[in-house]
Every structure is written in structure tokens, then in C-alpha cells.
What we know:
Number of helices: 10
Oligomer: single chain
Distance between the termini: 14 Å
CATH superfamily of the largest domain: PurM-like C-terminal domain
CATH topology of the largest domain: Phosphoribosyl-aminoimidazole Synthetase, Chain A, domain 2
Largest sheet: 6 strands, mixed
Strand order of the largest sheet: 1-2-3-8-4-5
Amino acid sequence: MPDKPHSTRTPNSLDEFGVISEFFTDKGAHPNAWPSQGVGDDCAFLDIGDKRIAVTTDMMALGTHFFDNADPYTVGRKSLAVNLSDLAAAGAVPKAFFLSISFPSIDEKWLKAYSKGLMEESFRYGCPLRGGDTVKAPVIDGKPSKTTISITALGELPAGKGLTRSGARPGDDIWVSGTPGDAFAALGDIWGYWKCAPSDYRYFKSRMDKPTARVALGTGLLNLASSACDISDGLIGDLQHILDRSGVSAVLHWKDFPLSEAMRNMPEDVRRRCVLSGGDDYELLFTASAEQSARILELSQRLSVPVTRIGEITGAGESLLIDDGEGGVLSPQPSFNHFTNEVV
């Protein structure tokens, strides 16, 4: 994450997801390849014999996803956690990951702290490092390039199973885990958009630096949820992916959204900005038939992971509505999207 973002709007209509669709979606026939599905989801699924493997990859860079002076220990933890969160959204059990990293010079202190955070996260979820690559970053116009990290994580699924963004149906409930918006509250304080009380800022900052991948919840939802994704770019933006892939729409109820105690101390407009559009939470957003609600709440209690029903899926052709609970409709700011957004 840069010190403060500037607009990087491209001169054409392509954005992050448009680029993927236009240039990096393989639509060819490959008769000798492993059968696969899931392009456009948090994970791709590969069917290998009687096994189904979930695969995800994320690239992160200092100055884009992290501040230049970010604690390397938390960079290590988070760089793996965001990939494990993708596996959680698919309902997969983490099994291994691969790391490629480019840095301008060998800084033993930085690398030791980064490795410590990375390996602790790896051990926490039983997901070992199995390979990768290291590259020296180039020097451009006399300035060294910034550290860039790419992790590919693999998880295991039962044959034929796996949660995607495309299964939501009209009448399904919409659920979210935890308290979204907390991570962006810290970012807004750092950027000077608002000011948090010191104790609240420490809580928000910990949520930004050390997200929790909801792996146990994801695997528990495998036979309960109809669709799922994790919240990386912002709740509304990530929900829209589910709606687009499923060919449906939704109604959300702002008054039902879960708020942390720290978030309750923030002004109402800040709450809405953070919770609806903020991103970087890595909570799970999922849909399920209303008849599954008791089992979902039982799972939540058993895992001590709070989940909250925040809306319902409606039919195709309708607009996404956010009921403010007072007879009005909210119009949130757009969620994050590489190449298009100026965060405000």
C-alpha cells in the first residue's frame, strides 16, 4: 500500500478484471490436460485421478499491498494468509505452497523476520513450503525496484466438491464472518482520512497486519454454502463477483451488519465506508439456503467464529440494494480495483 494512493485510471475501459477476462482467460481446448474448473473464482480446481486440488496464486509488492516500511514479520504472515484465505473460500484444506520473491539486495535482518512470519503462518495451518524461486530485482533509473512476493498455494478437496462464486440462488441468505471493515479503518487513519482513538487504532492495525484465514469455517461450509468468496477488495465489490457469476442480485440490510466494538466508536459515515467498501479483511462472504441457517450457526458456535446474516439473494435483472434501515437506500463507494480506483 503506498503512502497515499493516486488514481491510476487507464485511458480505456479495461480494469483489473477486464484485463484478466480479455487477455488471460484460456478458452482453448486441451484434451490432454487435467480437467479443471474455477477460472474467475478464488481458486481453480484441478481433477487429478480421484483427487481434486484447489490452486490459488497471489502477487504482492511493497508499496502496493504493504507500506514500504511495513514490519517484515507481519508481511511474511500476511503474504501467506491471503492465499490461505482463498483456499478457505473454496472449502479446501491447505496442503502446500510455493514462494517466488524478488528483492533489490540481501537484507538479512528483513529476510529473517519475513521468513519467521511466513513459517509461523505455514506451521499454524499445516501448509509447508515446497519450493519456489528468488530473483534480484532490477535497478531502473538508478533506483532499485521494490520487493515483490508471489505465492501459489494448493489445497485438497473431496472429489467433485468445492465452493465457487457461481452457486448463489434467489432466496439464499447472505452471510459474512467476523467484522468486516476493521482493516480499512487502520488504513484510513494512516492516510489521514479520519482519526481513531489509540486503543481502537491498535486493534484495527492488528486486523490489517495479521488477518485470520477462516480455513476451518470454509471446510465446514463445504456442504452448507451455495457460493463463497473471501473479502479482499471490499464487501460490496466481492459480493458483486458472486452476483455476476451466479446471474442474480441481492438486498443487504445495513442495520444487520456486524460491527466490532472499535468500529462502533467511529462516525456513521466512516463505518459505512470501511464496512461496505474497505477491503483487506479476508473474512468469508457466502450464501446458503435459508434451511441451512441452524447448521451454519451451530458451525459458527463450534468453531468460535462469528457469522452474521446480512441479506438475501434476489432474482436476475434486479439492482443490488442496501437498505439503510430507515426507509432509505445506501450508495457505497466502489471497492478496490487495480488500475481504476482512486481510494477516497
